[in-house]
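job 3f2a | input accepted
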Amino acid sequence: MIRMFTIGLILGALTGSPAIAQSPTPATKTDAPAAAPAPAAAVPAPSAPAAAPSAPATAGSDAMEGLAAYYSNRLDGRKTASGQVFDQNALTAAHPTLSFGTKVKVTNTKNSRSVVVRINDRGPTQPGRVIDLSRAAAGKLGMLRAGLVPVKLEVVAQAPAKKSKP
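job 3f2a | predicted structure (166 res):
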């Protein structure tokens, strides 16, 4: 039953389905204090670099915490937002704002297991969720049974700069 609910959450995240996002509302009320700080931390980050490129700006953009989920097997072989074909066996992930190609260290805060993934898609859209992982990455974090786990994200390598055409 939990696995079906998790799959529904994952599919809802990828399709933006409001019906699935509404079903966990009672659980979200108990998690509301945890979900509220995540958007607050994301808002100051863009204005912080303009004000002062100091440590708080780096910490706001590099260190993030929230829930992680993983993609459904049915999405294997489909195109991601970056145009690449999704491979459930690759160490890739979806993040709402990080540039495609950015490498992120994802740490499962329940068991301290970590994996480095490359951002190649957009999402998740649910409050409190910070990243969607490929099945291979989820397996390395030991979250295949749980479906959703609390994680900490750290940017380890920025995406390579695109060359502009003259």
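job 3f2a | Strands lie at 63-70, 92-94, 103-108, 114-121, 129-133, 149-157.
job 3f2a | closed
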